[in-house]
Amino acid sequence: MSLSIKKRFSLSRFSRGERTQGSSIDLNHRRVFILPNKAGLTLGFVILLMLVASINYSNSMGFVFTFLLASAAQTSTFFSFRNLSGLQIMSVKNAPCFFGQPAAASFIIKEAEGRTRWALFARIDACIVYIPRLLPNESYPLSVSIKPDHRGLYSPNTLTLSTSFPFGIFKAWAPLLFEQKILVFP
Questions:
Q1: Three-class DSSP category at 114
Q2: Are 40 and 34 in contact (CB under 8 A)?
Q3: Using CA atoms, how far apart are residues 26 and 112, in angstroms rounded to an integer?
Q4: What confidence score (pLDDT) does residue 14 get?
Q5: Residue 112 contacts residue 86 (beta carbons within 8 Å)
Q6: What are the E-state strand segments in 75-138?
Q7: What pairs with residue 62 in β-bridges?
Q8: At what angle do helices 38-57 and 60-84 cross, to 10 degrees?
Q9: Is the dihedral angle over the CA atoms 69, 70, 75, 80 positive or is it negative?
Q10: Distance between the two ends of the chain, CA-based, in angstroms?
Q11: 89 in Cβ contact with 24 (< 8 Å)
Q12: Is the backbone of residue 130 left (phi > 0), alpha (psi -120 to 50) or beta?
């Protein structure tokens, strides 16, 4: 499914995600986004200062360290993306709840590419669930606690999977919006 130019560059796509067509989403290059975090911007500034100092003093060893640090940072973008790419997220039917009580949005995260995934975070609103490790070909049942704000059929907000693996200088995230309903009794 291709996106129009307007939808492709919409800012809500980066925070809310695209509405899914079914109950399963495969994470690929279209759904995973990467930006440097505060530590990454600081590292970029340090690399720039090291480059200017190496040029100013014609220091060969400074060039070596500058380009080594820059290449390690560039490589970490690939591994941050790869940590999320290829995961399958499936929504599961949720149990009903009563108004004023917490409910659970349930999902299954499946690793299907034979790689170990490290330090994943799942977030809906303010509730964050930490997944320290996902082994190859393993399924992880995920239950995120939410508090419905109205009675009737309630749709949970966007599920955001994120990681800062391996160095913590880039944040890769995937906002996922499922057609999932929770019945909230009065």
A1: coil
A2: no
A3: 10
A4: 66
A5: yes
A6: 87-91, 97-98, 103-111, 117-124, 127-134
A7: none
A8: 160
A9: positive
A10: 40
A11: yes
A12: beta
Tell the residue number behind the tokens 């809906």, with chain if given.
124
Residues 10, 95: Cα–Cα separation, whole Å: 34
Tokens of 164: 């800062």
Tokens, residue 42:
């600081």
Place of tokens 């059929």: 153
d(CA 168, CA 39): 7
Q: Compute the distance between CA of residue 133 and CA of residue 175 in angstroms, rounded to an integer.
A: 20
Enumerate residue ranges in the chain where pLDDT < 70: 1-3, 14, 19-21
Q: What is the strand order of the sheet 139-146 is part of?
A: 24-26, 87-91, 103-111, 139-146
Q: Tokens 């393993």 identify what position?
A: 138
Q: Which residue has the tokens 């899914």?
A: 20
Is 97 within 8 Å of 185 (Cβ atoms)? Answer: yes
Task: Indicate the length of the chain as a whole number.
Answer: 186
